[in-house]
Amino acid sequence: MTAARPAAAPARNTTSVPTIPIGSPLLLLGRGADRGAERGVVCAGDLPAPDDPTLAARARDAKAALGERVMVLGHHYQRDQVIEFADARGDSFELSRQAATAEAPYLVFCGVHFMAESASILGREDQTVILPDLAAGCSMADMAEGRQVVDAWARLERAGVAAQTVPLTYMNSTAAIKSFCGEHGGAICTSSNAPAAMRWAFEQAPGGGDDGKVLFLPDQHLGRNTAVLSLGLSLDDCVVYDPWQPDGGLTDEQLREARVILWKGHCSVHARFQPSMVERIRAERPGVEVLVHPECRHEVVLEADRVGSTGQIIRWVEQAPAGATVAIATELNLVKRLAEEHPDKDVVFLDDTVCFCATMNRIDLPHLVWVLEALVAGEVVNEVRVDATTRRWARVALERMLALPGDGASLTAVVGTAS
Ligand code: 13P
Ligand code: SF4
Fold first, then answer.
1. Over the stretch 148-176, which tens digit does the pLDDT of each residue have?
2. CATH top-level class of 270-356
3. Class of domain 11-137+358-386
4. How far is the CA of 294 from the centre of ligand 1 (A)?
5. How is the cofactor bound (predicted)?
6. Sign of the alpha-carbon dihedral angle for 57, 61, 67, 70
7. Scanning 92, 171, 261, 279, which has the fewest C-beta atoms within 10 Å of its C-beta?
8. Measured distance CA(401)–CA(412) in Å, rounded
9. How far is the CA of 156 from the centre of ligand 1 (A)?
10. Measured between alpha carbons, how far is 20 from 28 in angstroms, rounded to an integer?
């Protein structure tokens, strides 16, 4: 297909993000949309047929026609058919760095909604961020709503601990929550800099040192693993705040004694891994090295040889000697790709059943072709744009994160308890 140059000012099909989303009516898959949260479940579009044999050629042609006007960013968990077209691949941290420095006026984000929002926050205001399927949300991010976080903060105030608490949110959260953290003296972290970010947060707490507390959103597992394995806190120093329970399910005394207040959220992909899977793989493949992502449960991480972000897992596989056997607990698209790229090593998936991230997988070649060809035709579809008020503080929080040491500050040094 021959593609024309894009018109100067494309028509827009925009989603904007209110400062604090409210309410959470049940939205059935494919019906309704909540543009203020991660629950964009509708993606109306005249998509090419998935069995169109020319899809890859169409994507190539559209990219060629757009030239330097478009940059495609791809998270490592994307399908092979999509990641092939990424100009930059990375984990959440790397992609946020890329978005902050990208020159292209159009950023097509092949990842999930919170990542596209972060690109919109970090990019220039004249840049346009496009998410090929608005239904590509994140179940973990959906576990914390802006309104719930405001309520939680009020709960900390009632318990008399808000003044000594710094909020720290994982990248996997809505723009509204990132903004809340920025406005309340906190920051963002990803799995590659969580230890540095949590140390930073404790340093910011008024009085610092022993009196400080961190409210960690929304992944309880990353928060717990970081607090215990990297910062040397105990499990008893951590409490879990449940936004669906009165008072968060915690007494004032529990809140006063806690050092880390973990939000009750988790990744539906990484939380599937169990210690029994590590036990089984060690029995089946003696000498195996078990690499896990810090979104995994603490009991799983304790059984692993190494724990690290997606980028770190990739580097460990690259560095493993030929003939090594490596079992990995993270998203399956990435594990399959690593196995294909390293035929001299035995790279296996830790789970015994299929475990793709369903929302990452929503970005497929038909959606990518659709948004690229629309751009070529002068139309912007599926734009993700964070409103100016939310953006202001969310950007502060993201910039605090980008100023921290990145990869290298992993949890890897402190695990390795098994074999
Ligand atoms: P990282 O990209 O920081 O490793 O996070 C993994 C993830 O679950 C992204 O959704
Ligand atoms: Fe969200 Fe987990 Fe999927 Fe990442 S892998 S997008 S945290 S559900």
1. 999 999 999 999 999 999 999 999 999 99
2. alpha beta
3. alpha beta
4. 9
5. Binds 1 [4Fe-4S] cluster per subunit.
6. negative
7. 279
8. 20
9. 29
10. 22
Q: What pTM, to 2 d.p., does this model score? A: 0.89
Mutation choice for ligand 2 from 112, 133, 189, 351, CB with most ligand atoms inside 8 A? 112
Confidence of residue 183 (pLDDT cuts 50, 70, 90): very high
Residue 212 confidence class, pLDDT cut points 50, 70, 90: very high
| pLDDT for the residue 6 | 36
Amino acid sitting at position 397: A
State if residue 267 touches ligand 2 by the CB under 6 angstroms criterion.
Answer: yes
Q: In the chain, where are the structural domains located?
A: 11-137+358-386, 142-267+398-402, 270-356
* Residue-averaged pLDDT of the chain: 88
CB 268 near ligand 2, within 6 Å: yes
CB-based contact 173:263 (threshold 8 Å): no
pLDDT tens readout for residues 48-79: 998 999 999 999 999 999 999 999 999 999 99
75 is in an annotated binding site: yes
256-296 pLDDT, tens per residue?
A: 999 999 999 999 999 999 999 999 999 999 999 999 999 99
The verdict on the CB of residue 238 being under 6 Å from ligand 2 is no
Q: 199 CB contacts (<8 Å, ≥6 apart)?
A: 231
Residue of 93, 267, 270, 310 with the most ligand 1 atoms within 8 Å of its CB, for mutation: 310
Separation between Cα atoms, residue 390 and residue 396, nearest integer Å: 10
Judge contact between 184 and 162, C-beta under 8 A. no
Burial profile 210-240: b = 16 or more Cβ within 10 angstroms, e = fewer = eebbbbbbbbbbbbbbbbbbbbebeeebbbb
Atom of ligand 2 nearest to the CA of 267: 2
